[in-house]
Write a structure and sequence with these properties.
Layout (H helix, E strand, L loop, with lengths): L3 E8 L2 H11 L5 E5 L4 E3 L3 E6 L3 H13 L3 E8 L4 E6 L5 E6 L14 E8 L2 H10 L4 E5 L3 E4 L4 E7 H8 L5 E3 L3 E5 L4 E2 L5 E4 L1
Parallel strand pairs: 1-2, 4-7, 8-11, 13-15
Antiparallel strand pairs: 1-13, 3-12, 4-8, 5-6, 6-7, 9-10, 10-11, 14-15
């Protein structure tokens, strides 16, 4: 089974980004490196923190905002649960969500899963590409959404426009994704330009 061990974000100010992600409690899986690559608009991916209850969503989004994040979608209840979306100071878009609509215990900042969602041009083609590299499909909804069975960092695919809409941003962009995905699947660049590195 392929394991995605980390994601490394290209940032303008590594010290600020390191402090931000340490406060969120994700620095064991999310690294940063200095990058002068330019990006305008949507980078083509989002990172999601899946948590157990609404108070955890509130706590993590509050921590992000205190650290300089900009809210893209305020925390709110929805059909599927409770969550919100923010843009980190380095420009990466994050979603914090739970399927629970009520707290079941004391407030915490514990994260159950970190999910990397790639916005791709062709979900079926990208699904085949990753399956050929050893990633096992855990869930698949036709050409709409695919989730792979990968410990540590989960990987999912969504249509690029649909992912941008979910994040509350325009799908338009130019420049670099500014992300490096570290795994034991090898070193390659996928059909949508996302770079992978053997870690």
């Amino acid at each position: 089974m392929v394991t995605i061990k980390s994601v490394t974000l290209g940032v303008d100010d590594p010290a600020v980004a390191e402090s931000f992600y340490a406060a969120l409690g994700v620095s064991s899986l999310v690294g940063v490196r200095s990058s002068d690559a330019t990006t305008t608009g949507f980078r083509g991916f989002t990172l999601s923190l899946v948590v157990s209850q609404p108070s955890t969503v509130d706590s993590l989004v509050g921590t992000a905002v205190e650290g300089g994040a900009a809210v893209l979608k305020p925390v709110a209840k929805s059909f599927w649960g409770y969550g919100g979306v923010f843009r980190a100071p380095d420009g990466a878009i994050w979603k914090v969500a739970t399927s629970s609509k009520k707290d079941k215990g004391p407030a915490s900042t514990e994260v159950d899963d970190l999910v990397l969602l790639l916005g791709v041009a062709d979900v079926k083609a990208s699904k085949r590409f990753y399956a050929d590299r050893g990633l096992k499909v855990a869930k698949s909804f036709a050409s709409k959404y695919v989730e792979f069975d990968s410990p540590q960092v989960k990987l999912a695919l969504y249509g690029r426009r649909a992912l941008a809409k979910d994040a509350g941003v325009s799908p338009d962009s130019t420049g670099s994704h500014r992300i490096l995905i570290g795994s034991d699947a090898g070193t390659f660049t996928d059909p949508d330009g996302f770079a992978w590195d053997a870690s």
